[in-house]
Amino acid sequence: MLRFILLSILLTILFRAVSRLWAGVVRGMQNGNAAAGGRTGGAGVPQRGVQMVRDPVCGTFVVPGNAVALGAGGERLYFCSAECRDKYRSKSESNHAPAHGRTA
Predict the structure, then answer these.
(1) Helices (H) and strands (E) in the chain, counts
(2) How far apart are CA 16 and CA 25, in angstroms?
(3) Cα-based torsion angle of the residue sequence 88, 93, 99, 100 in order, rounded to the nearest 10 degrees
(4) DSSP designation for 99
(5) DSSP conformation class of 67
(6) Rounded-to-10 torsion of CA 14, 17, 18, 19
(7) Residues 76 and 65: beta-carbon distance below 8 Å
(8) Which of these, 51, 52, 85, lies nearest to 68 by C-alpha position?
């Protein structure tokens, strides 16, 4: 009798798991068809990608609209934070500073 109860509980859990898996597959296929048809859902894949730029200091990729920008030498550089921008500025200023002492 105990074996029958445990088997029925196991089969019930297994049946529910398989039915939820199948429902997820069907839902995913329907959302995929909606995206392919041009309709967008609430939290779907974006239809168009955004070109990202790389921070020259730390190498992080950032969206230009959310980045800290700096115009340098006719080009525009993008940074992930004000700290990275300040590091870049201090590094470029030290490279342009006159050398003191002997040079090779």
Answers:
(1) 2, 4
(2) 14
(3) -100
(4) P
(5) S
(6) 120
(7) no
(8) 85
Residue 27 has, within 13 A of its CA and on its CB side, a CA count of 8
Contact criterion met (CB below 8 Å) for 52 and 63: yes
Dihedral, CA atoms, 86, 92, 94, 96, nearest 10 degrees? -150
Place of tokens 């200091």: 57
What CA–CA distance (Å, rounded) separates 79 from 67?
6
0.70 surpassed by pTM: no
Tell me the sheet residues that pair with 73. none
Confidence of residue 33 (pLDDT cuts 50, 70, 90): low
